[in-house]
Design goal:
The protein is α+β, with helices and mostly antiparallel strands. The protein folds into two domains: 7-71, Alpha-Beta Plaits (2-Layer Sandwich); 82-124, no CATH class. 27% of the residues lie in helices and 22% in strands. It contains three helices and four strands; from the N terminus they run βββαβαα. The longest helix has 13 residues, at 112-124.
Length: 125
Amino acid sequence: MFEMQKRRAIYVYMRGLKQVGQLKKFGDIAYISNKMNYVALYVNDDDAEELALKLKKYRFVKTVKVSPRPDIDPDLGDLHDDVFFEAYDKGQDEGETAAGAPASVSESPKNIDKVQSEQIKVEEK
């Protein structure tokens, strides 16, 4: 029976695109960026690290990046959306807005001197 092989993307950043044809022997070329001079190459997951090392040896290759996507947990493990909202609610309870700024204008650093001077005047009277 047919079994689907796991694939992984390798991004090969090149000095020029003249040698793109040489990359065909390593795997399936999925995308070629003329502007940014890189090639998206799909290879078998088992051979990805070995091929990345081989590709780095070529003179026309600047860098090689292996895609981390198959290693990333799509469910984000034990993290939930509630974590963001809990942090947001905690900030609201402490008197901060979503951006982390003070809730009232009188507490902002620009107006602290005005507030302190007004408090001193009130105390003197």
